[in-house]
Write a structure and sequence with these properties.
Belongs to the FliR/MopE/SpaR family. This is Type III secretion system export apparatus subunit SctT. The structure is a single chain. This protein is 77% helix and 2% strand.
């Protein structure tokens, strides 16, 4: 009987360890635009999170051996792992949000915001150009082996935020770093959309001269057609440079490891463990 109860306790421990291993991956997948754009939902999303967590399972199981599992510990660890995964998704999702914001800026300038799409995965309206830019960036990212790099970054996060720690330790500069990430999104979006926006602004200037020379023309109705035509021509020309610009955006991910170290404050963690 005693051996049977011991076996049950051991099985319960392994199940709990598996749940905590998946929690960080699940929080990461829920926030990162890469997976939401690929329409990973429900069972498929959970399956991907489990697949990503399998290589870490033996090491995480050993790390959790010394944890005294209670109801409070279970809740705190689960929430902490989801929170850390969400932080990882926020940091690594910057280029994808920048690409979507660039498309939104372009569509706003060409007056096609009424053609926004309802994306059931993103739970908000997205512009057609923003969707195009984001999907293009995702294709480049996956083709360049970015998924392996991203998983390596997530795996390394267990060194910064150990799974057995009840509370994640963030540095005093965390707020400034998150604000800097917002600035990076806006800067990348403006750089990416700048050539097309300039072309559309020039078309506005030309339409202004046309309206002054021929007041009887309905310039507003013409502007929608003219801007769409200019945008289509510029996009064909810009496509040759778009790949390079997006590659420069993805270079931000190479610094993600250092950024996460700045967020985690390893020295603070060391002091706390003493």
């Amino acid at each position: 009987m005693g051996s049977y109860l011991g076996w049950l306790q051991e099985a319960e421990f392994y199940i709990l360890a598996a749940g905590f291993a998946v929690a960080r991956m699940l929080g990461f997948i829920l926030v990162l635009p890469l997976f939401s754009r690929l329409r990973l939902t429900g069972l498929l999303r959970n399956g991907v999170a489990i697949a990503f967590a399998i290589p870490l399972y033996p090491a995480l199981t050993e790390a959790l051996r010394g944890v005294d599992f209670t109801v409070a510990t279970f809740i705190i660890l689960g929430v902490k792992e989801m929170l850390v995964g969400a932080v990882l998704g926020l940091v690594l999702g910057v280029p994808f949000w920048a690409a979507e914001a660039a498309g939104d800026i372009v569509d706003l300038q060409r007056g096609s915001t009424m053609g926004s799409l309802i994306d059931p995965m993103m739970t908000h309206e997205t512009s057609a150009t923003g969707t195009l830019f984001t999907i293009t960036l995702i294709a480049l990212f996956l083709a360049a082996g970015g998924l392996q790099f991203m998983l390596t970054t997530v795996f390394d996060s267990y060194r910064l935020w150990p799974i057995e720690s009840l509370l994640p330790v963030f540095s005093a500069e965390s707020v400034g770093i998150f604000l800097d990430l917002v600035t990076r999104v806006l800067t990348m979006a403006l750089v990416l959309s700048f050539p097309i926006v300039v072309g559309l602004l020039l078309s506005d200037v030309l339409l202004g001269f046309v309206a002054k020379a021929a007041p009887h023309l309905n310039v507003f109705a013409m502007s929608l057609v003219v801007k769409t035509l200019v945008f289509s021509l510029l996009l064909v020309v810009y496509a040759a440079f778009l790949i390079n610009y997006m590659g420069q955006e993805m270079s931000f991910l190479r610094d993600a490891g250092g950024l996460l170290e700045s967020l985690s404050c390893p020295n603070c963690q060391a002091v706390r463990n003493r």
